[in-house]
Amino acid sequence: MARAARNNQVDKVNCFISLLNRPWVSKADDPELYQNIRSYYQELKDWFQEYCGFSLLLTRQIARLEKIPGRAHDWMGLELLNEPLDYALFTYCLWFLEGKSETDQFLLTEMIEEIKNHLTGSSMSLDFTLYQHRQSMYRALKQMRELKVLVAVDGDEMEWARTGSDRNVLYECSMLSRYVLRHFPRDLTTYDSLESLGELAYPDNQEGQLRRRRHRVYRRLLQEPVVHDWEWSQDERYYVLTQRHTILEHLATRFGLEGQRYREGLIFFYPDHSAETELFPTAKNISDIALLLAGEIRRLLHKQDTSIYTDEQGCVPLTLAELEVILLGLREKHKSLWSQQLRQVKSNELARELLEHLTGWGLATVNEQIILLHPALGRWNGHYLNNEDEE
């Protein structure tokens, strides 16, 4: 009985994690997981609705959690889309598919022509003789194929995007196209800010305010790598402080997350690697540099003759020049262990790549000319093993 209960708990945690991290769970692609979600549907639905304000949709083919960010960030976008035009074309491709039934087939040129005609007379103009516009369309189509919204029956759009030739592609419509975009309760033109897009309809009373605050807190803790205390509003921080034990229990039971209250905030981590989530540090070389930087900053803070210090929020302010000097020192110290690319890259390019990595993980911000390394970065201390360490 105890073993069965443990297995059920593991299955349930996998359901919570998968729904949170995947666009959807398809019965065709993962029948066992889909069946587990069906089995625990009511519990999953009730918890996500109560604590996050997320709706769980279950059909005969897919399970989809409609997620809304507590705070929108650049890195929350679709992986293959880079420019605003990419997202616009991705959306217009979905508009085109609304008129198609599942398994309907059509040509790339047919879709392009219909989208161009639809945009005639609007402020948005498309010219697919331009390489930039073709590349945006290519990224939009590739993202749709990654999501399995589109199925390429014959051909590939890469050659069309590269040369602008008459090379065609035969596509087939998937039933998943109906579930990509979020359904809004009112017309999009009535929303006056990006933040309002994530708001639900809450009662204008104390209970409604409590639900709004609870939803914002749980959304951010589940969807962002780290949230420091200063990033909360005053009432949100009060909720995090007073409900800390409840939050820790909920996220441990549902998602297997381990949490700890530190001076800078409530921080969570997965004790075991999960294929469903991308975790820091990543397998990329730039994560290794981030860990080395964390260790070097820690050592510099304990030196007597250093200009490195922490501000009132626990952040370490640096100029870009200071960061480059630290990186040059790390490269000189560890160059025998670095790849040829890292040894040869310019210090300013390495600094920019590192900052993009750190800001994406909520471990740094860049304010005008000042870089702020967040205190959560100090929870790591990277160094290379030597013979003594191995013994």
Tally of structural domains: 4
Spans where pLDDT lies below 50 across 5 or more residues: none
Largest sheet: 3 strands, antiparallel
How many beta-strand runs? 11
> Strands of the largest sheet, in order across it?
1-3-2
Organism: Desulfoscipio gibsoniae DSM 7213
Pfam family, one: DUF2398
Protein name: TIGR02678 family protein
InterPro entries: CHP02678
How would you summarize the topology of this molecule?
Blueprint lengths: L1 H20 L3 E2 L4 H9 L1 H11 L3 E4 L3 E5 L17 H15 L6 E3 H11 L12 H16 L3 E5 L2 H7 L6 E4 L32 H18 L10 H9 L1 H12 L2 E5 L2 E5 L15 H17 L14 E4 H15 L5 H5 L2 H14 L3 E4 L2 E4 L13 H4 L1
Antiparallel strand pairs: 1-3, 2-3, 4-6, 5-6, 7-8, 9-11, 10-11
Helix pairs in contact: 1-2, 4-6, 6-7, 8-9, 11-14, 12-14
Describe this structure in words.
The chain is 47% helix and 12% strand. The chain has helices at 2-21, 31-39, 41-51, 84-98, 108-118, 131-146, 157-163, 206-223, 234-242, 244-255, 285-301, 320-334, 340-344, 347-360, 387-390; strands at residues 25-26, 55-58, 62-66, 105-107, 150-154, 170-173, 258-262, 265-269, 316-319, 364-367, 370-373. It has a three-stranded antiparallel beta sheet with strand order 1-3-2. It is globular, with a radius of gyration of 24 Å. It holds the Pfam family DUF2398. InterPro entries: CHP02678. This is TIGR02678 family protein.
Summed up:
This is TIGR02678 family protein. With 391 residues, the chain is mainly α. It contains 15 helices and eleven strands.
Question: Which features would summarize this protein structure in a list?
Answer:
Arc Repressor Mutant, subunit A, 3-stranded antiparallel beta sheet, 11 strands
